[in-house]
Amino acid sequence: MAIMKKDVNFVFFILIIATVVSFAGFTAYYQVSFRNINAEYDTKLAELNKVTTDLLDKKALLLQTSSELDTTKKGREELGQQYNEIKDERDDLQSERDTLKENLFQTKAELVQKSDQVVSLSSQLSTEKKRADDFKADRDYYEQKYDDCKDDLSAYE
Questions:
Q1: pLDDT (tens digit, 9 = 90+) per residue, 54-65?
Q2: How many CB atoms lie within 10 A of CB 89?
Q3: How far is Cα 84 from Cα 57, in angstroms, rounded to an integer?
Q4: Cα 85 off chain centre by
Q5: What pLDDT does residue 4 have?
Q6: Angle made by CA atoms 151, 156, 157, in degrees to the nearest 5
Q7: DSSP letters of 99-157?
Q8: What's the pLDDT at 3?
Q9: Residue 22: which residues within 8 A CB-CB, separation 6 or more?
Protein backbone atom coordinates (compact mmCIF):
# COMPACT_ATOMS: atom_id res chain seq x y z
CA MET A 1 0.00 0.00 0.00
CA ALA A 2 2.84 2.27 0.44
CA ILE A 3 3.63 2.06 -3.26
CA MET A 4 0.12 2.83 -4.07
CA LYS A 5 0.25 5.65 -1.65
CA LYS A 6 3.41 7.00 -3.32
CA ASP A 7 1.86 6.58 -6.75
CA VAL A 8 -1.31 8.35 -5.73
CA ASN A 9 0.67 11.23 -4.20
CA PHE A 10 2.79 11.35 -7.36
CA VAL A 11 -0.36 11.41 -9.51
CA PHE A 12 -1.81 14.12 -7.34
CA PHE A 13 1.47 16.01 -7.59
CA ILE A 14 1.42 15.67 -11.36
CA LEU A 15 -2.19 16.77 -11.45
CA ILE A 16 -1.40 19.80 -9.31
CA ILE A 17 1.57 20.70 -11.51
CA ALA A 18 -0.53 20.17 -14.64
CA THR A 19 -3.22 22.34 -13.12
CA VAL A 20 -0.69 25.06 -12.21
CA VAL A 21 0.89 24.88 -15.67
CA SER A 22 -2.49 24.98 -17.33
CA PHE A 23 -3.50 27.96 -15.17
CA ALA A 24 -0.22 29.64 -16.06
CA GLY A 25 -0.77 28.81 -19.75
CA PHE A 26 -4.34 30.01 -19.70
CA THR A 27 -3.28 33.15 -17.83
CA ALA A 28 -0.53 33.86 -20.37
CA TYR A 29 -2.91 33.13 -23.25
CA TYR A 30 -5.64 35.38 -21.82
CA GLN A 31 -3.11 38.10 -21.01
CA VAL A 32 -1.83 38.06 -24.60
CA SER A 33 -5.39 37.98 -25.89
CA PHE A 34 -6.29 40.84 -23.53
CA ARG A 35 -3.29 42.86 -24.75
CA ASN A 36 -4.31 42.21 -28.37
CA ILE A 37 -7.90 43.12 -27.66
CA ASN A 38 -6.77 46.19 -25.69
CA ALA A 39 -4.44 47.25 -28.55
CA GLU A 40 -7.24 46.69 -31.07
CA TYR A 41 -9.60 48.66 -28.81
CA ASP A 42 -7.09 51.53 -28.62
CA THR A 43 -6.68 51.43 -32.41
CA LYS A 44 -10.45 51.46 -32.94
CA LEU A 45 -10.82 54.20 -30.34
CA ALA A 46 -8.19 56.30 -32.12
CA GLU A 47 -9.95 55.70 -35.45
CA LEU A 48 -13.26 56.60 -33.84
CA ASN A 49 -11.75 59.79 -32.44
CA LYS A 50 -10.32 60.61 -35.86
CA VAL A 51 -13.71 59.98 -37.48
CA THR A 52 -15.38 62.11 -34.79
CA THR A 53 -12.89 64.92 -35.46
CA ASP A 54 -13.49 64.59 -39.21
CA LEU A 55 -17.23 64.67 -38.64
CA LEU A 56 -16.93 67.78 -36.49
CA ASP A 57 -14.78 69.42 -39.19
CA LYS A 58 -17.30 68.42 -41.85
CA LYS A 59 -20.12 69.71 -39.65
CA ALA A 60 -18.34 73.06 -39.25
CA LEU A 61 -17.75 73.17 -43.00
CA LEU A 62 -21.38 72.28 -43.61
CA LEU A 63 -22.54 75.04 -41.25
CA GLN A 64 -20.26 77.51 -43.01
CA THR A 65 -21.54 76.37 -46.40
CA SER A 66 -25.10 76.62 -45.13
CA SER A 67 -24.56 80.18 -43.93
CA GLU A 68 -22.90 81.06 -47.26
CA LEU A 69 -25.87 79.53 -49.05
CA ASP A 70 -28.25 81.62 -46.94
CA THR A 71 -26.18 84.71 -47.72
CA THR A 72 -26.23 83.82 -51.41
CA LYS A 73 -29.99 83.31 -51.32
CA LYS A 74 -30.47 86.69 -49.65
CA GLY A 75 -28.18 88.29 -52.22
CA ARG A 76 -30.08 86.60 -55.03
CA GLU A 77 -33.39 87.81 -53.62
CA GLU A 78 -32.03 91.34 -53.31
CA LEU A 79 -30.73 91.18 -56.87
CA GLY A 80 -34.13 89.91 -57.99
CA GLN A 81 -35.82 92.86 -56.30
CA GLN A 82 -33.34 95.30 -57.80
CA TYR A 83 -33.81 93.68 -61.21
CA ASN A 84 -37.58 94.04 -60.95
CA GLU A 85 -37.29 97.66 -59.82
CA ILE A 86 -34.88 98.50 -62.64
CA LYS A 87 -37.06 96.63 -65.13
CA ASP A 88 -40.13 98.60 -64.00
CA GLU A 89 -38.16 101.83 -64.19
CA ARG A 90 -36.91 100.88 -67.67
CA ASP A 91 -40.47 100.14 -68.79
CA ASP A 92 -41.63 103.49 -67.41
CA LEU A 93 -38.75 105.27 -69.15
CA GLN A 94 -39.52 103.50 -72.44
CA SER A 95 -43.16 104.49 -72.14
CA GLU A 96 -42.15 108.07 -71.39
CA ARG A 97 -39.67 108.02 -74.28
CA ASP A 98 -42.36 106.77 -76.67
CA THR A 99 -44.72 109.49 -75.48
CA LEU A 100 -42.01 112.11 -75.92
CA LYS A 101 -41.20 110.81 -79.41
CA GLU A 102 -44.86 111.04 -80.34
CA ASN A 103 -45.00 114.58 -78.95
CA LEU A 104 -41.81 115.41 -80.86
CA PHE A 105 -43.29 114.18 -84.13
CA GLN A 106 -46.48 116.15 -83.48
CA THR A 107 -44.47 119.24 -82.61
CA LYS A 108 -42.36 118.84 -85.76
CA ALA A 109 -45.52 118.50 -87.84
CA GLU A 110 -46.94 121.61 -86.18
CA LEU A 111 -43.63 123.41 -86.77
CA VAL A 112 -43.73 122.54 -90.47
CA GLN A 113 -47.34 123.69 -90.64
CA LYS A 114 -46.51 126.93 -88.81
CA SER A 115 -43.49 127.46 -91.07
CA ASP A 116 -45.73 127.06 -94.10
CA GLN A 117 -48.16 129.55 -92.55
CA VAL A 118 -45.29 131.98 -91.91
CA VAL A 119 -44.17 131.67 -95.53
CA SER A 120 -47.75 132.12 -96.72
CA LEU A 121 -48.32 135.10 -94.44
CA SER A 122 -44.97 136.59 -95.49
CA SER A 123 -45.98 136.38 -99.12
CA GLN A 124 -49.39 137.87 -98.26
CA LEU A 125 -47.64 140.62 -96.32
CA SER A 126 -45.39 141.32 -99.29
CA THR A 127 -48.42 141.43 -101.56
CA GLU A 128 -50.27 143.72 -99.17
CA LYS A 129 -47.22 146.01 -98.83
CA LYS A 130 -47.00 146.18 -102.60
CA ARG A 131 -50.72 147.03 -102.75
CA ALA A 132 -50.20 149.66 -100.04
CA ASP A 133 -47.31 151.11 -102.02
CA ASP A 134 -49.48 151.11 -105.13
CA PHE A 135 -52.26 152.82 -103.18
CA LYS A 136 -49.78 155.41 -101.89
CA ALA A 137 -48.54 155.98 -105.40
CA ASP A 138 -52.14 156.34 -106.61
CA ARG A 139 -52.93 158.64 -103.70
CA ASP A 140 -49.86 160.74 -104.44
CA TYR A 141 -50.85 160.83 -108.12
CA TYR A 142 -54.41 161.85 -107.26
CA GLU A 143 -53.23 164.36 -104.68
CA GLN A 144 -50.95 165.82 -107.35
CA LYS A 145 -53.86 165.95 -109.78
CA TYR A 146 -56.03 167.50 -107.10
CA ASP A 147 -53.42 170.10 -106.38
CA ASP A 148 -53.08 170.75 -110.11
CA CYS A 149 -56.86 171.08 -110.42
CA LYS A 150 -56.91 173.39 -107.46
CA ASP A 151 -54.19 175.47 -108.98
CA ASP A 152 -56.09 175.55 -112.29
CA LEU A 153 -59.23 176.55 -110.45
CA SER A 154 -57.43 179.32 -108.65
CA ALA A 155 -55.97 180.44 -111.92
CA TYR A 156 -59.46 180.63 -113.47
CA GLU A 157 -60.96 182.49 -110.64
A1: 999 999 999 999
A2: 10
A3: 40
A4: 12
A5: 59
A6: 100
A7: HHHHHHHHHHHHHHHHHHHHHHHHHHHHHHHHHHHHHHHHHHHHHHHHHHHHHHHHHH-
A8: 61
A9: none
